[in-house]
Specification:
By secondary structure, this protein is of the alpha/beta class. It is built from twelve helices and 16 strands. The protein has helices spanning 41-47, 119-123, 126-139, 156-167, 181-186, 200-203, 216-222, 241-247, 251-260, 262-271, 284-295, 312-320; strands at 2-6, 16-19, 29-39, 61-62, 66-74, 86-89, 102-106, 110-112, 147-150, 171-176, 191-194, 207-212, 226-234, 274-277, 303-308, 327-331. Residues 10-330 form the Enoyl reductase (ER) domain.
């Protein structure tokens, strides 16, 4: 099968199309012919070696973290799905590789594709959808009537997060450039801050939660907008020792994480806040929940560009510019 692989880590490492063996399936796996895949920042972070401390891989490595397609074969103990089923999903981190014509995944990591979405649209949902759902329900305990700040509202994660937060009954503030204003307004954002003109930390107070997709100084200033005992969850910040213990890392790695996150830990204490770093978990059941919201038109995918499969390297370079409004996808079919 054709697949986009890397042979080494590095900012200048080549992402090239190669021929790879067809994946073998276990008794609880399904083999999916991929029709579309979406691109996410974790793809170029893995490519550049920025995730190797947490995610060690062997080469050649097929990149890609979410997909949609059609099942062509199932393992001997798979009963709920069968050949011909249209599905979408996010494979577990040890089995990534959606920039390819086929992938083998555990049956519990896929769900039936929403009937009202194309394959390209469906492929943009799993990673951002599961990440956001788990952030809101498992880390932030977001409730109706609470106030949440969602950073980079016009991005791939932000466009989904605004919609899910509104479904959950929250008041949503978000940061965008002027070019993203109308988009986030159409998605239901209640307060929109142009980060090029104003500092959100000067304007917002007494928020229950912050969903951080940027890290760095933005994450650090976000503590200022929280009420006492407010919560921040980040998908782009510094993993801390609490994350390391939850993720089952070795003790020495937890010590390194505690040292790296010492500034964030100090901010937690200063502002009486709770900080979490999130690595999402694949879940077909949660995807089915999101499918229900999508089929009821409560959430819609937002796509900036769709590339052909052979343009995957170009698509990844475009995503890294940070200019995309919504998601970027590639289609195999």
């Amino acid at each position: 099968m054709r697949a986009f692989t890397i042979d080494q880590y590095g900012e200048n490492s080549l992402l090239r199309m190669t021929n790879q063996p067809l994946p073998e399936i276990g008794e609880h796996d399904v083999l999916v012919e991929i029709h579309a895949a979406s691109l996410n920042p974790i793809d170029y972070k893995i490519k550049e070696g920025k995730m190797k401390f947490l995610l060690p891989y062997r080469f050649p490595l097929i990149l890609g973290n979410d997909f949609s397609g059609v099942i062509v074969k199932v393992g001997s103990k798979v009963t709920a799905l069968g050949p011909g089923d249209e599905v979408y999903g996010r494979p577990r981190k040890s089995r990534i590789g959606t920039f390819a014509e086929y992938i083998a995944v555990n049956e519990e990591e896929v769900a039936v594709k929403p009937v009202n979405l194309s394959f390209a649209e469906a492929a943009t949902i799993p990673l951002v959808g599961l990440t956001t759902l788990q952030a809101f329900t498992e880390k932030l305990d977001l409730e109706m009537g609470q106030k949440i700040l969602i950073h980079a509202g016009a991005g791939g994660v932000g466009t989904f997060a605004i919609q899910l937060a509104k479904v959950m009954g929250a008041y949503v503030a978000t940061t965008v450039s002027e070019s993203g204003y109308e988009l986030v307004k159409s998605l239901g954002a209640d307060r929109i801050i142009n980060y090029r003109q104003d500092d959100f930390a000067d304007l917002l107070r007494d928020y229950d939660a912050v969903y951080d997709t940027l890290g760095g100084a933005v994450l650090e200033r976000s503590f200022q907008v929280l009420k006492p005992f407010g919560r921040i969850v980040s998908v782009a910040g510094v993993p801390n020792a609490s994350f390391g213990r939850e993720y089952g890392l070795a003790w020495w790695k937890n010590l390194l994480l505690a040292f790296a996150a010492r500034k964030i830990t100090a901010l937690e204490t200063k502002f009486q806040a709770e900080y979490s770093f999130l690595f999402m978990k694949p879940s077909g059941n949660q995807l089915s929940y999101l499918s229900n919201l999508i089929e009821r038109n409560q959430i819609r995918p937002v796509i900036d560009r769709v590339y052909d499969f052979q343009q995957t390297e170009e698509a990844l370079a475009y995503l890294k510019t940070g200019r995309a409004k919504g998601k970027v996808a590639v289609k195999m079919k």
